[in-house]
Amino acid sequence: MQPIFAVIQKEFKQVFRDRSMVAIIFLVPLIQLFLLAYSITVDVRHVKLEIADLDNSHLSRELVQAFSHTKQFDLVGWTRNLNGIEEGFRSWRSQVVLIIPPGFEKNLRRGRLPQIGVAVDGVDGNTAGVALGYAQAILIRFGQRIQTQVFAQKTRSQPHLVEMRERMWYNPELDSKPFMIPGIAVVLLTLLPMMLSSMSLVKEKETGTLEQLLVTPLKKTQLILGKLIPFLLLSFIELSFLLLVAIGSFHIAMNGSYLLLGWLSFVYLFTTLGLGIFISTVTTSQQQAMFMSWFMLVFMILMSGFFIPIENMPLVLQKLTYLDPMRYFMSIVRDIFQKGSGLRFLQRDAIPMAGFGVIILTVSILKFHKRVG
Amino acid sequence: MKAALLRTRAIVRKEFLHILHDPRSLFLVFLMPVVQLIMFGYALNLEIQRVDMAVFDHARSPASREFIQAFSGSRFFHVFEVNRSVRTVEDWFKSRKARVALVIPADFDRQLHRNLRIPIQFLMDASDANAATLIRNYCQQILISYNLSHGAKVLLPFAFRRTVFFNPNFRSSYFFVPGLMAMILIMISTLLTSVAIAREKETGTLEQMLVSPVRSREIILGKVFPYLVLAFLDAAAILAIGLFLFRIPFVGNLLLLTLLSVLYIVLALSLGLLISTVASSQQVAMMIAQIATVLPTIMMAGMIFPIASMPRWLQLITYILPARFYLLIVRGIILKGSTFADLLNPSAVLLGMTIFLLLVSIRKFKTNLEA
Question: Is the pTM here over 0.90, yes or no?
């Protein structure tokens, strides 16, 4: 056992000798947590609206008011020149233009159905679609109101309307933080162990110190264990630290079992550390190791459902996500936190995750033995 | 002057040789962006394709079935009926077999004839707030069209027509593929230079250069130039894939895009340079490069999530992200045909950032060498 401790001690010293490494391990994740927790939102607000009021009547101004007094639209400008619409889009000045035709009020009072135009910059399809929906809703509301004002006598029967009563489970405020923050913790819990372990082994290869370690009476297994245990410990400290901050300062509710979370995190770390060793066996320099782990990370993060729901992807890619160990851990952590799910609901993810972990770690250690031996 | 040029060229040559001697890295530098682009290009989609909806139909009447039909007929929803108590809904959510549950009351038909407003309960698994918001929007749209087709004649005294510019079918690849150019370029360029100098520091070869007659300005130029070429080739490959594989229309001026992309690449390379001067080792340099580029670009620069919807203080922070400005440029030129006059502001910001970073990093580099 003692040789392992020596390696562990050496490894810890190596990490903590470098101040910037300590900052990267503890401080940077914290900053990222804070920034990312707020940045991820598909809410569409403050859409830049330009208005072409070619009528300039009492009613057209009322319609303009109906648009400018909303949270969804920010009135950024006026135009009288319809050719300028496209130019406004090209320079990112506006996203939506509302066009009220000349003679709007007059034609409306005569019942001639004047045509209102809504032009939208479709480049950001999601925003454009939602903004059009907002515009439509405002127009319908406005239309219904003036309908009863202007043509009060003509409307007879009131329509029956089916209305939505919604109840949002687990997250009544529709706050994205309880979903994103555990997700960020998962990403960070993958990133660090993988990079640290891959680079630490490659570094010894690059500088030739690995050979030195091998001529010591240390067994290869002891060497690997001694290398992995510090990263395992660091990752655990990191995780607890992040969760503490998440719960303490973001007031994220933890509805599930800490013990279960701890166990499954431990299992997940087999995968990330295993991948780290694997990368170190197929690369020869730190730069390559970095590229490789980076490459894998981007793939893993993308396919994990972290910020793009898996259901949105084409079927082929959805199938591909089953190869991503992070996918399972992502669901597990989020479900434990938000839904308080027990193992009964989690085994669907936990079993493949454990399988991956054991396979990846075993294969990598074997490969490492062969490479080194 | 001529001597300076020669010395710079020597460094360029050395750096090129260094790159070519490591084909594995080179391979990764080209393979990575291409694979990432293809994967991201297909995977990035904010529109939900299929939402599992559990229906608890307590009315079981033709009217309720017709109402359900409004949802099952939509391509967004995969509707299945559950003949159990609504209380089981939590199990459906926990096992992720349903994202939303529609509960139709037993007296639906009666209400439909008597009441002006018929409340219908939608229970949603809102653990993913973004998805829940989208699902709610879809449900509302379907309700509107159901109401319209069921006697609720919302008579409007006017008509309205929508015109969609540049991307009439709202294809998300139009939005995301140019966005990926911004991410991949800054990631690759920053990483490459940050490592190139940190490596010399780590192996001690930087000192050797110091005793040679080469000036620090020349070292930097000579080191950066090969990576500029590399990143530029990457950009060209990404653009080609975007145009031919994802069929993005290119309506703007290629020369303008090239010039501004070179500016952006130089900016990213200078950022890498600065990182390498402050980093103590390759490992630290690469970590910082990654932290500074990947996640902020994806999450905060407007590549995926609209900046206007972020909290105000965060919006202010986004102004330091180069990608925020390059995104306007690359999307503007490719998709909208924006001219230089249209893009004056973001271009000026990029130029300012580049000059600032270059000056700071050359200065830091000098003090580094002298120390």
Answer: no
Q: Are B222 and B12 in contact (CB under 8 A)?
A: yes
Task: Determine the residue of chain A that is closest to B31 in CA distance.
Answer: A295
Q: Do A161 and B153 touch (CB under 8 A)?
A: no
Asked whether A119 and B163 are in contact (CB, 8 A), the reply is: yes
Q: What is the pLDDT of residues B183-219, one digit of tens each?
A: 889 988 898 888 877 888 777 777 777 777 777 778 8
B156 neighbourhood in chain A, CB within 8 Å: 139-140, 143-144, 147
Facing residue for B174 by CB, picked from A123, A291, A338: A123
User: Does residue B102 sit in helix, strand or coil?
Assistant: strand
Cα–Cα distance, B199 to B284 (Å, whole number): 11
Instruction: Give the residue from B222, B224, B266, B217 showing the smallest Cα distance to B366.
Output: B217
> Which tokens hold the place of B306?
């609209």
Rounded to a whole number of angstroms, the distance from the CA of A317 to the nearest CA of chain B is 7
Residue B110: Cβ within 10 Å count = 14
Rounded to an integer, what distance in angstroms lies between the CA atom of residue A327 and that of residue A187? 10
Q: Assign A321 a pLDDT band (cuts: 50, 70, 90).
A: very high
- How far is Cα B5 from Cα B13, in angstroms, rounded to an integer? 12
Q: Do A167 and B122 touch (CB under 8 A)?
A: yes
Q: Residue B296 and residue A35: Cβ atoms within 8 Å?
A: yes
